[in-house]
Amino acid sequence: MTAALIAEGLVAGYGAAEQILKGASVAVQPGEIVTIIGPNGAGKSTLLKAVAGLLKIAEGRVAVAGRDVTAQDAIGRARAGLAFVPQEANVFARLSVAENLSISGFLDPKGSATELEKIYARYPMLAGKRRALARSLSGGQRQILAMAMGLMQQPTMMLLDEPTAGLSPRAAEELFAAVIDLNRAGLPVLMVEQHAVEALRISHRGYVLVAGRNSVEGAGPALAEDPDIRRLFLGG
Ligand SMILES: Nc1ncnc2c1ncn2[C@@H]1O[C@H](COP(=O)(O)OP(=O)(O)OP(=O)(O)O)[C@@H](O)[C@H]1O
To answer: What ipTM was estimated for this complex?
Structure first.
């Protein structure tokens, strides 16, 4: 089986300072939700950025659906199938929902209208608010919009950086339900989450990243219930 994503031995950082990633690796198999947890500053967001091609890596390799994309920039990796939803500033606040979605179809302008209809069918909330400015949406609605913008790229693999950050427990639950829904429709997901227990419970597998390196990995629900993991990384 060809992995949906392989990132191997990534070394990367920001400029002259010490590298943040010191050889981190993750893999996502077709059909999986995989969550990366770990202490603040471990490099979780940095790992997603390095995979998405937004941060140059000094060492390592990235492959999407069996194709090596290490030499590709962010656009090349998007074309190869990766959609990255950043944690912050992930929608254009002053544009409408429809405009946000339309410009996200830039990889395939011809297919964009069809894709847009699929998205409105999947998320009736967005269809109902298509003329609303993105900044008028609730936090949860905005995260759905950001995810839908990723879907406009017709990805084979979704990268989500803390999709529930700043959301109420209820909105976070709805967002996780939307992630499960997408995954059941066949999309593999790699996410970084602060709501680690909830995220691991809905994940097939999880990785613990510590100081830029892999620590523990295992089945998501098992990690969520593991007493040592809970004590060390999940606040008791
Ligand atoms: N743009 C940047 N320029 C310089 N340093 C950065 C930048 N972004 C992140 N860092 C540093 O890289 C380290 C890892 O940050 P990263 O955001 O990847 O951590 P994280 O594991 O996602 O943690 P958190 O849960 O705090 O977001 C931190 O020390 C952070 O200060």
So the answer is: 0.95
Report pTM: 0.95
CB of 106 closer than 6 angstroms to any ligand 1 atom:
no
User: Is 227's C-beta closer than 6 angstroms to any atom of ligand 1?
Assistant: no
- Domain spans in the chain, listed from the N-terminal domain onward: 5-233
Per-residue model confidence as pLDDT tens digits over 118-165: 999 999 999 999 999 999 999 999 999 999 999 999 999 999 999 999
Take atom 29 of ligand 1 and give the residue whose Cα is closest: 41
Q: Is the CB of 14 under 6 A from ligand 1?
A: yes
Angle between helix axes 139-151 and 112-122 (nearest 10 degrees) is 140
Over the stretch 170-212, which tens digit does the pLDDT of each residue have? 999 999 999 999 999 999 999 999 899 999 999 999 999 999 9
Of the candidate CATH numbers 3.30.450.40, 3.30.70.100, 3.40.50.300, 3.40.50.2300, the domain formed by 5-233 belongs to: 3.40.50.300
Run of H or E including 21: strand 21-28
Distances (CA, A) of 65 to 17, 91, 104, 213: 32, 27, 22, 24
For ligand 1, whether the C-beta of 212 sits within 6 Å is no
| For the CA of 161, the nearest atom of ligand 1 | 22
